[in-house]
Amino acid sequence: MDWKEKVENFLTNSSEEKLAEFHKRLVDTKHKIYGVRTLALKNFAKALSKENCPVDAIKPNSHEEILIRGFLLSNCKYDDKKTITELKKFLDEIDNWATCDMIVGSLKNLTSEYAFNFFIENLSKPSPFKKRVGIVGLMDYFLCDEKLDVVIENLLKIDDENYYVKMAIAWLLCTLICKNYEYGVFALQKFQDKFVRNKAISKCQDSFRLDKEKKEKLKKLRIS
Prior knowledge:
- There is one protein chain.
- The chain has two domains: 1-97, no CATH class; 109-224, Serine Threonine Protein Phosphatase 5, Tetratricopeptide repeat (Alpha Horseshoe).
- Helices cover 64% and strands 0% of the residues.
- The chain has helices spanning 3-14, 17-26, 38-50, 63-75, 80-88, 97-106, 113-122, 128-141, 148-155, 163-179, 181-188, 194-205, 212-219.
- α6 runs parallel beside α8 (128-141) and α8 packs parallel to α10.
- The longest helix has 17 residues, at 163-179.
- It is globular, with a radius of gyration of 19 Å.
- The termini are far apart.
């Protein structure tokens, strides 16, 4: 059995019609949706990695195949440059928030300058989901003291009204505030976009990582 056949058999046998319909309402994608649970996709990708399945053997013909390819990549013992090189090969197929967030979040310890520059470069791409890949990558791997000024400077340059881009920026700002409150509040005040600022503050109100006093201070920074 070749890799293509193995993947097709897995997707057919693991698909759930009701889950597929649910995902179709939740995820706006051009790709076919089988309706396979995320844990099953991750476990399948892990099993493929133990069989030394090449990342390129998984063709991005469906929502689930793109996720399998991303999860398989996360299981490969590649250095940062190789990981990013492989990610670039199917970056154009990442066309929704769920695929973006799950794949980027699953990659391992991307800490090199090469990875940082890749995520920064994506912020200026026309595609909203390439921008989101950049934002989520910076949030997951580069909210470190030595990178913060550059991250915020580049986020402020983004001129995109796409909902998923703005939500990603708000998510990053909330994460930054929870990790580094003083700097996070300083950075938040640089953002004059009402949706981004207020959504970041709203997300902070839901966080268990901030105490009541800090949350009350943040409420005063809302744009009315």
